[in-house]
Amino acid sequence: MRRIPVPARMVLSRELGRSGIQKGKCNMKTNTSAAEMVAEARSSIENLSVEQVMAEIASGDPLLVDIREAEELATSGKIGGAVHAPRGMIEFYSDPTSPYHRQEFDPGRRVILYCASSGRSALAVKSLQSLGYRNVGHLDGGVKAWTAAAQPLESI
């Protein structure tokens, strides 16, 4: 192990003390909770109501993507016309350079994501934006909001 000369250690110690770092401790917050990540995502993405999603489906051709796990779809069904792309694969399916890319994913196309209650879809919207998707939003409240508005789900 390389030893730092004593005067350099003193300077380093003094500088770390000024920055708030003392003996392995830091006054900066380094951990973020999942709830904080979702809240941050929701504050910077397009959050769509059930009515807005219904209007887009009726008037256009958005790619509606269910990002829940297969077991969730099997249990409750999906919104009519939606494609399934589980949260763990959404980046791979939507990246045109990925060997897993699916043709229905086009960065120029309108994309609407949804999950059970909208936490996962909010995070996934941020991921798609990082991949160059500019016209992407999510169903705020997810399937729970959809069914609460008495909208049907189709069986898988």
How would you describe what is shown here?
The chain is an alpha/beta fold and 156 residues long. The protein folds into two domains: 1-28, no CATH class; 34-148, Oxidized Rhodanese, domain 1, CATH 3.40.250.10. It has helices spanning 6-18, 34-43, 50-59, 70-76, 90-94, 119-130, 142-148, and strands at residues 46-48, 63-66, 83-84, 111-114, 136-139. Helix 4 (70-76) links the parallel strand 2 and strand 3 (83-84). Helix 2 crosses helix 6. It starts with 5 loop residues before the first helix and ends in an 8-residue tail after the last helix.
Layout of SSEs?
Layout: H1 6-18, H2 34-43, E1 46-48, H3 50-59, E2 63-66, H4 70-76, E3 83-84, H5 90-94, E4 111-114, H6 119-130, E5 136-139, H7 142-148
Helix pairs in contact: 2-6
What keywords describe this structure?
156 residues, 2 domains, alpha/beta, 7 helices, Oxidized Rhodanese, domain 1
